């Protein structure tokens, strides 16, 4: 009986440590997501309506969980290349070439 109590205690401690580590990680991820959203919102405030429309489409592709990384890359590149030069230049001035600032 004593061995079972010790095992339960050790397992409980390990679980608590893992839970604490996960909670810290989860908090960091949420903080980074919040910072990224704030940066995107600030950048969008400076965009023309055409650039905002393009940004919406690029964001929809990049955040689509049903697409593979390769599919996202292909679709983003195709959309980006189809944009008028002035819209591409505007996005690049805010985000860097092909959204590298994202």
Automatic annotation (TrEMBL):
- Family annotation (InterPro entries): ANIS5_cation-bd (IPR003677)
A Pfam family (short name) is: ANIS5_cation-bd
Source domain of life is Eukaryota
The leader peptide range reads 1-16
Residue ranges of every copy of the SXP/RAL-2 family protein Ani s 5-like cation-binding domain listed in the record: 19-88
Key words of the record: Signal
Put simply, this protein is called SXP/RAL-2 family protein Ani s 5-like cation-binding domain-containing protein
Species source reads Diploscapter pachys
